Write the structure tokens for this entry.
Amino acid sequence: MLLLHVATTSGESMESWDVLVIGSGIAALRSAIAASDAGATVAVIESGGPSNAQSKTCTTGIAISVSENDHIHHEKNTSSAGFGLSNSTIVNQRCESALDNLIELEKWGFNFQRNESGSPHPAESIGHSSPRLCTAGDSTGREIIRILEEQCMKRGIPRKYDLHSVSISVESQRVRGLVVLDIQTGVITSIQSKAIILATQDHSGLWNDEGGNGLGASLALRSGAKLRGMEFISWHPLCVPTSNYRLPISLLSAGARIRKSNGDDVELTGTMTEASISLIDGDYVLDARNVATSERAWFTTTANILESRFSINLWKDVVPIEPQPDFAIGGVAVDNQGRALLSQDLWLTGLYAAGGSADSGMHGADMIPGNRILDDLIGGSNTGLSAAKWSGTVGFGDQDFLHEMALISENSIEALSRTESGPSVGAGIASLRRLMNSSMGLEREAVIISSCSAQIEEMVKESTRISDESFVMNTELVRALELQGMLALARTIASTADAREESRGSHRRTDYPEMDEKHSESLVVDAEGIITTLN
């Protein structure tokens, strides 16, 4: 039996912060910076160790209208990719603010690839009517993380590693704090806060083993928040088969070509998913042999990984490619301030979300390159500022309530550990991924979705065997908790996919192949599986 211990009891002091940020990526760090700059006390909670975010960053650049007179065409391209489900106010604000964010990153030391005049070089990319993809080659996401980490250190923002977020403590639809499991010590404790920002990775890990587990969205769902857009996942067309390695889209603007096995060139167009669909049947390769020597230094990481993992020389060999699920668009339904919405005029007070934890309304039903990082930066900034301003107007809640929530979590986790039969955690996660890939891939239909839902329910009921009886550094326990959250999210995906009886963006139904205007609103779902809209 697994023994866990609650760290604090009634009467003892408790760690308290105005704003807690859960996550480690671009949106998390940017929201922490914004909240700190607005005067709030801030701490960042991370399940992984130092540099965990660096290994899972997006290699695509940032879409910015740097060489255009205005942002209007960027806005139009983004709205078009959303297939009627993008929020026009959010899209306009993100596209209009893009250049300011580029200037801010440069001021902080980011090194964009530049043109002859010394300005950031905007490259052409699929889905964009003008060149606007600004990059640092294949290191864009990693370099942005590095810059933001430096800014957090300059502000003295503490980043607390190896703390797994177990549950959000909500009292009368108001956030009071967070229950965490200290992975190093096995201790469960509560941290008091006025506001919580969920900015974890998305839930693409339901399809592949290098994607996120959707911790933020699952925490929000259990706390009473609503999720939006869960039926949509954007695909990436340039993935190495039998792996989850994604080649940067910017290789195409550098001179690489996609070719059929017979040598014919193929041009990608449309959204990320539309480009992926064009490669779904047949054998295709990426040919980067004609990329200019002057461009190759920007893709050193890609070349090294291909050489070490696949024995492929990027500059001498062709690279086999296939489309794979990439980024889950859905998440917590939020407004432009990142507030978790319960309806158009009501929010779960004190709960915010950004980045992979949120459905900001920018992407709608699909996305185009460069908008993901842009949404992370601007959404994170807006959310941090709003959380700091709001937390300055309220006080902390009752600590006794938080002690009680920690004890409830302790009992729940101990119950999880008592079962000696059932599949292992690894087997459970693998089974879920197989199910999602077979049932929730590029094409879906009612019979398959119904079967998927039934299988998910069986997996929810099934006990998970935990072999490690120690409570110290028990990563198996953490994965079991993650699996519970992933199953809860899988249930919402199946239910919203079933409810959307049409094909729109990255959601494609073989039994409903056309887009239907009666489904022209985003669907939201709660923990009970009730599907509505926010109107």
Residues 43 and 157 are 6 Å apart (CA to CA). The domain at 236-326 is CATH 3.90.700.10 (Flavocytochrome C3; Chain A, domain 1). The mean pLDDT is 94. The longest strand covers residues 187-198.
